[in-house]
Write a structure and sequence with these properties.
By secondary structure, the protein is an alpha/beta fold. The protein contains five helices and six strands; from the N terminus they run ββααββαβαβα. Strand 5, helix 4 and strand 6 form a beta-alpha-beta unit. Bound molecules: adenosine-5'-diphosphate.
Length: 170
């Protein structure tokens, strides 16, 4: 699998599937989640509501992933995953890595060859950015998947620079 890092907006990626850094309600929030629902339109929210009514009555658990349509976005699917909130007292790295791992498993089920990820948990959920980049790149790099191209989308120039730096050392 090829991995690339780009500076940009996840909602504008012309790929098979984009990943949403969702919250467990699946009903929208801030950051990536807000942008996905705002720009993706009502069809995404309608599918999320159905998921809440059926498979995920209590919300999507942290570390898991589930797909919906991408509505009005250029991508075909949105894979929603819930990153862990960063904690000083508890190591939640395995949950963060599960997000990437499970999103790639969902992408495999969909037959998505080209997948774009945001930097899960590195916004409102407070994960230190450099470690968030390392966990993302290492997990993507070591997961067995049919996905051919994985793009990590960094929202700021600074995080993009850091990610490029880490990608070269992978
Ligand atoms: P979380 O709740 O998992 O921390 P956030 O959406 O708050 O998720 O932020 C995750 C990362 O995505 C942060 O690095 C943030 O700067 C970045 N981000 C926010 N909006 C976008 C966007 N539209 N496209 C790509 N990355 C974004």
């Amino acid at each position: 699998m090829r991995i690339e890092c780009v500076h940009g907006d996840i909602t504008e990626q012309n790929v098979d599937a984009i990943v949403n850094a969702a919250n467990s309600s699946l009903l929208g929030g801030g950051g990536v989640d807000g942008a996905v629902h705002r720009k993706g339109g009502d069809r995404i929210l309608a599918e999320c509501r159905r998921l809440r009514k059926n498979e995920y009555e209590h919300g999507l658990p942290t570390g898991q992933a589930v797909a919906t349509t991408a509505g009005d976005l250029p991508a075909r699917w949105v894979v929603h995953t819930v990153g862990p909130v960063h904690s000083e007292s508890e190591d939640r790295t395995d949950l963060l890595r599960s997000c990437y791992h499970n999103c790639l498993a969902v992408a495999d089920d969909l037959g998505a060859a080209f997948v774009a990820f945001p930097l899960i948990s590195a916004g409102v959920y407070g994960w230190p950015v450099e470690d968030a980049i390392d966990q993302a790149l290492q997990t993507i790099n070591t997961t067995q998947t049919s996905v051919a191209l994985c793009r990590l989308v960094l929202f700021t120039k600074e995080t993009h620079r850091l990610a490029q730096d880490r990608l070269i050392r992978l």
